[in-house]
Specification:
GO terms for molecular function: 3-hydroxyisobutyryl-CoA hydrolase activity; lyase activity. This protein is 48% helix and 12% strand. By secondary structure, it is an alpha/beta fold. Helix 1 runs parallel beside helix 3. It is globular.
């Protein structure tokens, strides 16, 4: 059975991620197949729009194949660098695709799943959607253009999402600019049927509804105040002084990798000033390459995914121990590995 399936019907080129037992996590072969097929569909008159969804009923995609990355990192390999290079090229291609690209972001959409969906032209969520960039919880930093998207969310909502490594609802995703349309899950089959005879815009006009209120939007006042600080330490100080919800966020952040937190905050601030997705992806590749060789990443995956003891031993263990020199290293140029968006 193919890990990713392709079908053209009634002018719709459909991509279905097909690893339901692994929550449709992406591997390198899937990324390469998607790149090849999207390039072919660019000039195919039989394809007027593209739709991506996930097999099973749990979600679109839970991210990259983290176990493969773990094995690669432990042995000092470079396979993950090749995977990321092609994955980021796929993200960039999706963002500038010349035909409508519809992403059905139903259920879980995490990490790499965001990369193959949230850069599309028509991003659809439901009441079942749970979307997130959980990287700081495994000693990593939001990638696949995540820092581009989150740095452009209203106020400091993206900073909150990135540092807590939490997930957001469909309405939150619409409010934050991670999605465009809210369609109740019971109407999704009708939407898919309508796409056979209508343009994506007219089909969505029939079935999309105003998104319910965003919980994140309701919390924007304390989020914007706390996360506007220049350092993670000051963010935590403000959170602890800003009420129960903010204090809960602080406790979530304090469980994350101190190194990943500081690198993430700088990456977000830098991404906000970069001109386009490609330049942000280039920055993310430098960070990812550095993370691959770090003990933090291996330890984070071990604690959360492999042994599942949920007790990572971060090193450095505290925020004050993470100095500017260490953070700087994540942004340094690469001599032996290169990623160029073309």
């Amino acid at each position: 059975m193919n890990d990713v399936q392709f079908l053209v019907h009634s002018g719709i080129g459909r991509i279905t991620l097909n690893r339901p037992r692994a929550l449709n996590s992406l591997n390198h072969d899937m990324v390469l197949a998607m790149l090849e097929r999207l390039e072919a569909w660019r000039s195919d008159p039989a394809v007027r729009a593209v739709l991506i969804d996930g097999a099973g009923d749990r979600g679109l995609c839970a991210g990259g194949d983290i176990r493969a990355i773990y094995d690669d990192a432990r042995t000092g390999g470079t396979a993950s660098l090749r995977f990321w290079a092609d994955e980021y090229r796929l993200n960039a291609l999706i963002s500038r695709y010349p035909k409508p690209y519809l992403a059905l972001m139903d259920g879980l959409v995490m990490g790499g799943g965001v990369g193959v969906s949230a850069h599309g032209s028509h991003r659809i969520v439901t009441e079942r959607s749970r979307i997130g960039m959980p990287e700081t919880g495994i000693g990593f930093v939001p990638d696949v253009g995540g820092t581009y998207l989150l740095s452009r969310a209203p106020g400091e909502l993206g900073t909150h999402i990135a540092l807590t490594a939490g997930s957001v609802t469909g309405p939150d995703a619409v409010h934050c600019g991670l999605a465009d349309h809210f369609v109740p899950s019971e109407k999704v089959p009708d939407l898919l049927d309508a796409l056979a005879s209508r343009t994506p815009d007219t089909a969505l006009d029939l079935f999309a509804e105003p998104a319910p209120p965003s919980g994140l939007a309701a919390d924007a006042e304390w989020i914007d105040h706390c996360y506007a600080a220049d350092t993670v330490e000051e963010i935590l100080t403000r959170l602890h002084a800003s009420g129960d919800a903010a204090a809960t966020a602080a406790k979530e952040i304090e469980a994350r990798s101190p190194t990943a937190l500081k690198v993430t905050l700088r990456a977000l601030r830098s991404a906000a000033a970069l001109p386009d997705l490609e330049s942000v992806l280039a920055q993310e590749f430098r960070i990812s390459a550095r993370a691959l060789s770090s003990a933090e990443f291996v330890e984070g995956i071990r604690a959360q995914i492999i042994d599942k003891d949920r007790s990572p031993k971060w090193s450095p263990a505290t925020l004050p121990e993470v100095d500017d020199k260490l953070v700087d290293a994540y942004f340094a140029g690469l001599e032996d590995a290169e990623w160029v968006a073309r």
